[in-house]
Amino acid sequence: MLNIVLFGPPGAGKGTQSERLIEKYNLVHLSTGDIFRANIKGETELGKLAKSYMDKGQLVPDSVTIDLLRSEVEKYKDPKGFIFDGFPRTNTQANALDSFLSSINTSITMMLSLDVDEEELKSRLLKRAETSGRADDANPEIIENRIAVYKKETAPVKSFYAEQNKFHGIDGMGSVDDITQRLFDSIDAN
Ligand code: B4P
Questions:
Q1: Is the pLDDT of residue 133 over 90?
Q2: How far away, in angstroms, is 12 Cα from ligand 1 center?
Q3: Is the CB of 36 under 6 A from ligand 1?
Q4: Beta partners for 111?
Q5: Which domains does the chain have, with CATH numbers?
Q6: How far is the CA of 121 from the centre of ligand 1 (A)?
Q7: 139-165 pLDDT tens trace
Q8: R_g of the chain, CA atoms, integer Å
Q9: Positive or negative torsion for Cα 145, 82, 21, 36
């Protein structure tokens, strides 16, 4: 199986690039952010809980997120692999993912980590706010908080995969097509 963690700060292009990668490599796309947003739309209990964190730019608690991810993976029989988009976001989530994948006889192949300047991140998110209706994109203070949470809680996950020799940094600046090509090259060289 080809199991990719697509990583990066809020607005790095994870969702955008995932669409391209699943098409080329025939993978299942699992975005915890998308799953939470679908639950918010459906007004489920999980959605109400997730919204209370997401609207403030905070992470949804690990226990909830890990259980959710596990049950999503289990829905697929015989997949070619997964793109994990927005998961893991903490070292606790990364450890849980490793244990869970090992229990189903597979593992993470590689982490692809998109590097984007902070000013560019803010401008992408504010631009998306014009059409997305996402409360967490519309407010510059909440965007700042998401970036701060990323630096403190999420960025350390890079070392988790670097220690396993699975970390690949990718320049996430430039056109969507150019970044896609960099990702393809990195996957194909692996
Ligand atoms: P996510 O849905 O993962 O939101 P995100 O970090 O903003 O990334 P997203 O994929 O949406 O943006 P992208 O970079 O593709 O998470 C939302 C919230 O859910 C989190 O803050 C947290 O509260 C919660 N959550 C999710 N997963 C969790 C977990 N594991 N644990 C705990 N909590 C969790 O794109 C951004 C914009 O940039 C797009 O509009 C795109 O069109 C644009 N763009 C992309 N590439 C571009 C390029 N090259 N040039 C110009 N614009 C570009």
A1: no
A2: 7
A3: yes
A4: 5, 167
A5: 2-172 (3.40.50.300)
A6: 10
A7: 999 999 999 999 999 999 999 999 999
A8: 16
A9: negative
